Amino acid sequence: MMIVRTVAELREVLRQRRNGSIGFVPTMGALHEGHLSLVRAARETSDTVVLSIFVNPTQFGDVTDLEAYPRTEDADVALASEAGVDVVFAPAAAEMYPSGFATTVAVHGVLVDSLEGAVRGRDHFDGVATVVAKLLLAVLPDTAYFGAKDAQQVVVVRRMVADLNIPVRIAVCETSRDADGLARSSRNARLSGHERRRALSLSRALFAMRDAAASGESDSAVLVAHGIDVLAHESVVPEYLEIVDADSLEAAPTLDRPLLVVLAARVGATRLIDNVLIAPKTT
Ligand code: AMP
Fold first, then answer.
1. Is 186 near ligand 1, meaning CB less than 6 Å away?
2. Helix 123-139 crosses helix 151-163 at what angle (to 10 degrees)?
3. How many angstroms is it from 37 CA to the middle of ligand 1?
4. Is the CB of 152 within 6 Å of ligand 1?
5. Do residues 30 and 72 lie in contact, with contact meaning Cβ atoms separated by under 8 Å?
6. What is the pLDDT of residue 4?
7. Could you report how far apart the first and last alpha carbons of the chain are, in Å?
8. For 252-261, how does the pLDDT look when each residue is reduced to its tens digit (9 = 90+)?
9. CA 185 – ligand 1 centroid, Å
């Protein structure tokens, strides 16, 4: 496995491998089983697997959050190598944003204004879209792999790739969870034992809503109230808990088709997100 730090080196390494297919897994590091599930999906279908590790400063509104973000490059490199990654691209911030950098890719509309965009500010998805565009153009993979855990990110990236005619297939892998249901996240490392137990209420709320939907409840307001109750058992107050269309992210008042439940909440100082697809009762 190779580690490269510059776009020029990356292009040179990949130039020799373009006769085969290239799969790409963009990450911010602190790798866990969720990231590795993307690597495995990439490994299955690609001749060369590239994984990037870059904690992108422009998508963090809050400097404290950026500084607190876990950075574990040595362990990441070992995990990536074990999982069969061929090339790790781990640039410094100055490589991605050299002095004079002046271009932003901005997706507009409800896709970025709602949910994460509403809480984190509109700069968040400008930062995501810009760095993902830069990474895709640096790697030029056949397929890029993203996690369903970041549902809004997937919708925004798909929109951007279509709008800018970036020639890449976007593959989405299901959310990887700990055995008790907690969605895996680099941020989970910051939870104390007590906070981790409280954090479990997020997946519990989502699963309870999914079960209520499967049993016939189709009023989104009732389903959301049910989820809020489950969170309240652990004194967790959501930043948002909404039922939305999985493609447009528009709020959906009635469960008349499969929909996405999206949830964000702080547990202690740690901000967590999770989501689950729900479907109406089949008769
Ligand atoms: P991050 O390092 O958090 O930016 O995540 C990098 C990629 O891994 C994104 O596409 C995430 O959606 C994905 N990812 C993070 N956590 C999980 C998880 N628990 N299951 C599946 N994919 C995940």
1. yes
2. 60
3. 9
4. no
5. yes
6. 98
7. 52
8. 999 999 999 9
9. 7
Count the Cβ atoms, other than its own, within 10 Å of residue 28: 19
Q: Which of 255, 268, 112 is nearest to 199 (CA)?
A: 268
As annotated, the active-site residues are 35
Half-sphere exposure of 195 (CA within 13 A, CB side): 14
Ligand 1 centre to CA of 219 (Å) is 30
Q: Report whether residue 149 contacts ligand 1, using a CB cutoff of 6 Å.
A: yes
Rounded to 5 degrees, φ, ψ at 122 are -75, -20
DSSP the chain: -EEE-SHHHHHHHHHTTTTS-EEEEEE-SS--HHHHHHHHHHHHH-SEEEEEE---GGG-S-HHHHHHS---HHHHHHHHHHTT-SEEE---HHHHS-TT--------SHHHHSTHHHHH-THHHHHHHHHHHHHHHHH--SEEEEETTSHHHHHHHHHHHHHTT---EEEEEPPPB-TTSPBP-GGGGG--HHHHHHHHHHHHHHHHHHHHHHTT--BHHHHHHHHHHHHHTTT--EEEEEEE-TTT--B-SB-SS-EEEEEEEEETTEEEEEEEEE-PPP-
Pull the structure tokens for residue 244: 């939305």
Tell me how far apart the alpha carbons of residues 107 and 126 are, in angstroms, rounded to a whole number: 7
| Nearest by Cα to 94 from 123, 54, 51 | 54
42 Cβ below 6 A of ligand 1: no
pLDDT digits (tens, 9 = 90+) for 203-232: 999 999 999 999 999 999 999 999 999 999
